[in-house]
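stuck on this one:
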Amino acid sequence: MMSLARDWFFSILTVVAFGLTLLVFDLMGRVALLFGLRPFEWVMAWLQRSLLAIFGISGVRFDIEGLDGFAPSGGYLFVSNHQSMYDIPIFGGILVRNFPKYVAKKSLASGIPAISLNLKRGGNALIDRGDRDQAMNSISEMARECQDRKVSAVIFPEGTRSRDGSLGEYRVGGVAALMSGAPDLPIIPTVIDGSWKVFANNMFPIPYGTRVRVRFGDPIQRTPDEDPSVITQRCASWADEVLEEWSSDDR
């Protein structure tokens, strides 16, 4: 009972801080847009960094591996598993100077202070899951802009969030569209574990002291004869191996 009371107490503090931060950065983002996209990106980068810090109120802690395998700025294509909405600020808060862009549902582009603003105005790909052509074109266009501007893109090829941390099937279509739009950007397989626990109860409560692990794999260099299906499967197999390794460590 004491543990549950602790979880609830710190969760309430976290949620209040979370909401206030979104409101403040929504206003800051709208002001930054008056000065151009890059000032807006810096504001949104610090929003995501701040959200990582705020969840520290509930004792959420991070183990991050592989950051030394690529430059702390510039363009890459990150192919990752997907466990919760928390994954987006994880990427944005860690890869501050890479200014990552995301593939997200159109419905998320409204109704959420700061987050919806970032998705709508920050150069992300907003897709309609019922319209494959629109989705693929949006992803390719985002990738082209990322390559031109030397910023990064993130895709979650499972297509939906895992509710229990298990790995779903990686779909090729979105990865292929991303690769087609940015043929010069290296691909970095990425795996996240533990973020599903943060949102397992819709933040009420957040289990205090949740450990979130992130590992970035070695960059996959691009070749003229590359096969998107092979690369997608390579990223999925690697993620599965890492998750199994971490599971074995926790036993």
About this structure: The chain has eight helices and seven strands. The beta strands are 61-65, 77-80, 101-105, 125-127, 153-155, 187-193, 211-216. Residues 2-250 form one domain.
